[in-house]
Amino acid sequence: MRIAIIGAGIAGVTSAFECANDGHQVTVFERRSSVAAEGSFANTGFAAPALALPWAAARFPRPGAGALSWQWRRWRAERSKDHAARQALLLQLASYSHGRLQELRKRLQLDYERTEGQLLLLRHERELRAIQAQLDLMQSLGLPHQFLSPEQCLALEPGLNPETPLHGGIQLSQAEVGNCRQFSHLMRIEAQRLGVQFRFHTTVRSITPGQPASLIHEHTIPPEGLGAATRGPDKQDAGDTQPAPLGPVQESFDAVLICAGAGALALLQPLGLKPALSTVHGYSITAPLRQLEAHPDLGPRAGLLDLRHQVSISRIGQRVRIAGGIETGTSATHFKPATLALLHQVLHDWFPGAMQVGQEQRWKGSQALLPDGLPLLGASGLAGVWLNLAQGSANSLDWPLACGAARVLADQICKRKTDVDAPDTTGLDIARLA
């Protein structure tokens, strides 16, 4: 089959690899100059099945959380009769995805600054009560976790500030932290070895469903600053496909898989598909860890999530990354000083002095999100068009589901028998939004 994939974030790159690994001819269209240049560039780095769940209940209405109609849909989704069943399905997919990630890591010998372990920090007992439903769901599905006392948390993460009030922590043993962007680049190399063509600086203008389906794409140079990071523009990677022709080009494919994240709505709406996708933006700050011989544990050893503030702290190689501040309806290029201050404050609360001040990289990335917090995976209902969207959550963005979703969709597209360990993702397709 000839398969087109729109978007080269982690969802698009893993989908390209899985389809090519099955022997298909795959072309990836990406408007930026490289893979993982937007929502996957500097995310939390969390790859933990449990963090696919929402660890903070939605309040209604909540200022700054998007349009009132979208908030209303989200509030209703959390109270629907099948909400628990879909959360269980989400957790099953995340667990399957984690297993697929480990399989790829070992088979392909991937090194992406990986560290095992994840700790959810509880400042007060009421935070433990608030997440009891999530813990019960994990328990019922056999996902290991353990409550740790403050002393046990300090033993696990010796750099934690003992003066910050701490009720305890939840240790997620089936979890890791890594460099999502580096992983995406490694998967891009593996995909190219299988024959995948990447067409960067290429914007897909429209899709026409059918057998075959077709799309119109055009070579475009994006403006600097797209993706909102305090860094220079991306350099063109070596080994890209043939030079792109000028002007719009139409091509036909047996299947078109949309992995365009926040850019998907512009392609879906002309087709009559209008899922209530909202664009959310997440912040992160990344900086080198201070190296002091007398204090070897100034920063984190793995990954932590401050549940009260919904701010994560990750160790990425010899750097520390603080991420959080999910917001909707704002510009991707505007950084709110209050949000940046919160990230700095949370790091100071738990690991004072860990960051080398003056060398931090600020980033703000976009992600598509549905009101029910679940991904949109599977057939679109239109011939030849498939969807791999809205995988993110406030805690982890899109890594926990990427590898599993890509494998499941590759099987669905070519009508191949699904892996016996893979969950049935029917409840995550577009039919639920009808």
Provide an overview of this structure:
The structure is a single chain. The protein has helices spanning 10-21, 68-77, 83-108, 125-130, 132-140, 150-156, 180-193, 265-268, 337-350, 399-413, and strands at residues 2-6, 25-29, 46-47, 115-122, 145-148, 168-177, 197-199, 202-208, 213-219, 249-253, 255-258, 278-288, 303-306, 311-316, 319-328, 361-369, 376-379, 385-389. The protein has 434 residues and is an alpha/beta fold.
Order of helices and strands: EHEEHHEHHEHEHEEEEEHEEEEHEEEH
Instruction: Give the termini distance in whole angstroms.
Output: 29 Å
Based on CA inertia axes, which overall geometry fits?
globular
Portion of residues in beta strands equals 25-35%
Structural class: alpha/beta
Helix percent band: 25-40%
Keywords, separated by commas or semicolons:
434 residues, alpha/beta, 6-stranded mixed sheet, 10 helices, 25% strand
In short:
By secondary structure, this protein is α/β, with parallel strands linked by helices. The protein is built from ten helices and 18 strands.
Please outline the helices and strands.
Elements: E1 2-6, H1 10-21, E2 25-29, E3 46-47, H2 68-77, H3 83-108, E4 115-122, H4 125-130, H5 132-140, E5 145-148, H6 150-156, E6 168-177, H7 180-193, E7 197-199, E8 202-208, E9 213-219, E10 249-253, E11 255-258, H8 265-268, E12 278-288, E13 303-306, E14 311-316, E15 319-328, H9 337-350, E16 361-369, E17 376-379, E18 385-389, H10 399-413
Parallel strand pairs: 1-2, 1-11, 2-7, 4-13, 11-18
Antiparallel strand pairs: 3-6, 4-6, 5-6, 8-9, 9-10, 12-15, 12-16, 13-14, 14-15, 17-18
Helix pairs in contact: 1-7, 1-10, 3-10
